[in-house]
Amino acid sequence: MDVINFILNLWVEIGDWFGGVLAGWGVPPWGVNLIADIIGVLILLVFGIMAVIVFTPMERKVIARMQDRPGPNRTPGYGAIQAVADAIKMLTKEDVIPRNADKILHMLAPLLVAIPALLIFAVLPWGPGSGLIGQDLNVGILFVVAISAIHVLAVIIAGWGSNNKYSLLSAFRVVNQLLAYEIPMVLSILVVVIFAETLSMQGIVENQVIPYFVVMPVTALIFLICALAEANRSPVDLIEADSEMVAGYIIEYSGMKFAMFFIAEYVNMFAVGIVFSTLFLGGWKFFGLENLAPVLTPIIVFFKAAFVIFLMLWFRATFPRIRFDHLVGFAWKFLVPLSLINLMLGAVVVKIPVDDPMMVPWVHGAIMLVANIALVIVTMIILNRTAKRVEGAPALKRIVAAER
Amino acid sequence: MNVSQVVFIILSVAALAGAAGVVLSRNLFKAALFLVLSLVGVAGFYVLLEAELLAMIQILVYVGAIAILIIFAIMLSQRLMSPEYDPRNEQWLGGLLVAIALFAALLFVLLRVDWPVSEASVPAEAISQLGQALVSPDYFLLPFEVASVLLLVALVGAVIIARER
C-alpha cells in the first residue's frame, strides 16, 4: 500500500526526499529552497524548450496526414527525430547580420522573443497545491497577458532592426493584428475571471467545477481564435505571411537567431495550449483522476495542451489564409462587440441568486450555457441579414453583372 | 544593504537610464524603446512594493498599449524614421526652461512633504478590495465614473474623426 501511495504522490515525495537529502548534508533551509527553486526553473525551461522537439514532428506529421502525404520519413523512427536533424542544421548555419541593420536591436529581438515565451511557464499550473506550479501569483492570468505584450515589442524590434522592407511591413502588421486580437482575448478571459472569482491560475482551476468550455462555448471559441492570432499560427499568421512577405520579421535572421524565433513560436504554442486548458478545459482536473492519482496531473495537462495544439494544426491544414484587412476587420467589427455582449451576459449571470451554495456553479453554468446558445442564434440571424443586405448592395450587383 | 535595496538600485538605474535615453537619443524609434525600458523599471518598483496588480497593469497598459502605439505612430511618419533626422528645433530654449521649472517644482514637493510610511503588511485580498473600492460610493465611485465617461467621449470622438464621409 505504501508503495502505491508513494507512486501516486511521486512528485511531492521526490520533492520531500530531495529536500531531506539536502538538509542531511547540512544545507540551511533557505539554501534548500534556493536550490529547489533553481531546479524548478531549469525543469520548466527545459520542458518548454523540449516542447519544440515534440511538437515540430507532430506538426509535420499531422499536417502531412491531413494533406494525404507521408510527411518527413527519412530520419530514424519514421521521421520521429526530425527535430534533432533540424536543430543540427540550424546550429551549422552561418549567422548573417545585414550590413545596414541596427546591430544591437537585431541581436536583442531574438532574446526578447524567447524570454517572455518561457516566462509564461512560471505561472502555469501542472498540479494541485503550490508544488507543481512555478509561482501561484494572485494575478496569474494578468501576468500571462502582460508578458505577451512584450512579444509584440520584440517583433517590432526585429522588424525594424533588420532594415528590410518586408520586415518593416510585418512590424506594421504585428501592431495592427496583435493589438486588435488582444482586446477580445482579454475580454473573454474576463468572463472566466468573473466566473472563477480569482485571477490566480491555480484558483481558476480549483473553482472550475464544470469545465468552462461546456459552460461558455462562445467565450472559449473567441479565446481560441484570438490565441491563434496571438501565437501567429496559420491561417492567421499574416505577420510572417510566407506568400506575401517571405517570412516578414524573420527574413533577415539565420542560424541560431532564427532558431530562437522558431523555438519561441513552439513554446508560445505550447503555452497557449496550457493556458487554454487551464481556463476552459479544467487544467489538471480530469473527472476526479487528479484525486486518485496526483502523479498523473502533469500528464493530464500535457495531453490537454497537446489536444489544443492538435486543434491549431487542424485549423492550419484546413482553413485558407485570410486577407489582412478582413482579419483586422473581423477582430474589430465582430469579435470585440461579441465579446462585450458575452462579458455583459457573464456579469449578469453570476449575480443571479442561488439558495444552495453547492449548486451555484451548476445553476450559473446552466444559465450561462443557455444564454450562450441564445447569443449564437441571435448572432447567426444578424449575420444572415447582413449577408443578404450586402448581396443586395448596388455595387456588388454591378460587379456580379459585369462578371456574367 | 539587503536584497530589496540592491534590486531597488538596479531598477532605479534601469528606469533612469531609460528616461535619459528617451531624451538623449537622436533616433525617435530608439527613444521610444528607451521609454519602454523606463516603464518596465517602474513596473519593477511596483513588484518590489508587493503591488503585483499595479505592476501587471503598468506593463499591460504602458508597454503593451501606449508605448506600442507611440512606436506605431513613429513608424508611420516617414521623416522621423530617417537616420539624418534631427529631432531638435528652434524651441529648445523654451522647452529647457519649462523642463527645469517642472523638475524644480517636483523636487520642491518631494522634499517638503513628510511621506508617511506604513508598517502594515499588504492585505491578501488586495485586488478584490481595490475592485470594491472602485465601485463603492464611499471611496472612488465618482472619479471612476467620470473617468469612464471621459474615455467614452474620447472613443466616440475617435469614431467620428475616423468615419468615412
Please describe what this structure looks like.
The complex is a heterodimer of chains A (404) and B (165). Chain A has 404 residues and is an all-alpha fold. In chain A, 72% of the residues lie in helices and 0% in strands. Chain A has a domain at 90-351. In chain A, α3 (29-66) crosses α12 and α10 packs antiparallel against α12 (255-280). Chain A is globular. The model of chain A has no long low-confidence stretch (mean pLDDT 81). With 165 residues, chain B is an all-alpha fold. In chain B, 75% of the residues lie in helices and 0% in strands. The radius of gyration of chain B is 20 Å and the shape is globular. The N and C termini of chain B lie far apart (64 Å). Chain A binds chain B through residues 105, 137-139, 142-143, 145-147, 149-150, 152-153, 156-157, 160, 168, 171-172, 175, 179, 182, 199, and chain B through 29, 33, 36, 52-53, 56-57, 59-60, 63-65, 67-69, 71-72, 75-76, 124, 126-127.
What global shape of chain A is seen? globular
Please tally the β strands of chain A and state the result: 0
In terms of per-residue confidence, which ranges of chain B show pLDDT below 50 for 5 or more consecutive residues?
none
What is the end-to-end distance of chain A? 79 Å
Sheet having the most strands of chain A: none
Helix content, binned percent of chain A: over 70%
Number of helices of chain B: 7
- What does the overall shape of chain B look like? globular
Tally of distinct domains of chain B: 2
Largest interface: A-B, 23 and 22 residues
Largest sheet of chain B: none
Percent helix range of chain B: over 70%
Number of strands of chain B: 0
**What is the C-alpha radius of gyration of chain B, as a whole number of Å?**
20 Å
**CATH class identity of the largest domain in chain B:** Mainly Alpha
Q: Stretches of chain A where pLDDT falls below 50 for ≥5 residues?
A: none
Name the beta content range of chain A. Answer: under 5%
Q: Helix/strand/pairing class of chain A, anyone?
A: mainly alpha
The ordered H/E elements of chain B are HHHHHHH
Number of helices of chain A: 17
Average pLDDT metric of chain A: 81
